[in-house]
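Quick one: co-fold with glutamic acid.
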Amino acid sequence: MANSVRVRFAPSPTGPLHIGGVRTALYNYLYVRKHGGQFVLRIEDTDQKRSVDGAEAYIQSCLAWLGIQPDESPAHPGNFGPYRQSERRNVYQKHILEIVESGLAYYAFDSADELEGHRVDHEKKGKTFIYNWHNRMKLNNSLVLGEEKTKEKLDNGHPYVIRFLMWDEKESSVYQCPDSIRGNVAVDCKLLDDKILYKSDGMPTYHFANVVDDHLMNISHVIRGEEWLPSLALHLKLYDAFDWRPPKFAHLPLILKPSGKGKLSKRDGEKLGFPVFPIQWEEKIMGYKEEGYLPVAVLNFLALLGWNDGGENEIFSLEELISLFDLERVHHAGARFDPEKNKWFNQQHIQRLSISDFCSLCKPVIENHGFVVNDENKLRSIALMIQSRVVLTTELWRELKVFFEKPDVYDPKAVKKVWKEKTKGLLRAVVDLLSDDGEASLGELQDALKRVAEGAGLGLGALMGPLRVVVVGSLSGPDLLSIINTLGAKEVISRIDSALEAIE
Ligand code: GLU
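Sure, here it is.
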């Protein structure tokens, strides 16, 4: 096969997709785009009780917003569908019977009460009850009951589960699990339980469905979160049980809280005041999109949460990430999530935008505030003035506003600082200057203003502070002369007049 790389992102639709999941999707995407192949989105919804309405659509919208679209998915099926596990029941049924027949899985009829009884008994003796080689021949299952009694129970509709015969004394108990990031991870199979693979409601558990689907969907590389590393031995033994060749596995490091202590949780965002979801979820939870982040910045900082290319540079486009990404350089240790660094990434990407792309960001913001943009040159000069001042796109209007609206308030602290006895007279002189010379004089504005100030026995500084306050409303903002130049004499005169009335 020319293109043998196939990766998958396999979320369970149990709620909004948080950045841990997004990073997993991204690493899969980078890997497959670098090596050529297909990126599959598979919805793992075998646990229907935990499935949440709208979560699948949300996952697809997030990937679309970020620009890391799958090649095959429930919405765009390829040749390996269905891509929702809830639609693959017959596939699992056929395969579970296969390993039951080969003796590697067995029916277990123990009731919840029976199991709880065993658990309590063990606890009293200071032990932990594990359903495995140690005691499976003393429990209520087909290994003990034999074929006839098992069939009788099944025919009578007795509830059951199917368990995997994880390990028995004939085998060596140490199992080597190869992981592309960690090397070989040795696991003692003696300590593992006979996991439930299938339930009598006809639904497989995650472990079984996941392995069957990865095989049937021809997945070559499983790139997923570290929380699945403890399941790797089970998954590899399931591949053995079917005599299937396993994919290569890579388990990604945890994303840690900003404090570095513990795993970043979905609730941390709300608690600590930063987004942890790509886009808005329901009414209350805002995502990176709504909080003013560019998709490329989100991808960039997520890519660096657990990987780097070994160089000094941290700012990459998606194309650069694809060409540099390498599973071997993914870290073992958890990656600390730093919300301030995320903002820095966003600012860097905003500054990297071409002026015309930055204008395209500004234009809808201006229009949403009810203004028409018909002078592209003016938009461009405004954009040039504010681009370096924006960290989040939610700040765009704060920077743009001055070019479209008169100040609605004059920052009292600024007024207090710059408003002196001679200020009103000075500003009136500026009005005269602008009315006399009109637009034409704006080119030599600085000299003209200097002359006005000198006329009152002051330096230019004594004029620029108050002038900024009346034009902008505060002492911040881009270069004042450039603002005045863009606004034009008429607008500046009108702003001075309004301020002279408003400020005592
Ligand atoms: N459904 C699992 C999850 O949501 C997928 C784990 C895997 O990639 O194997 O985490």
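If it helps, The chain has 20 helices and eleven strands.
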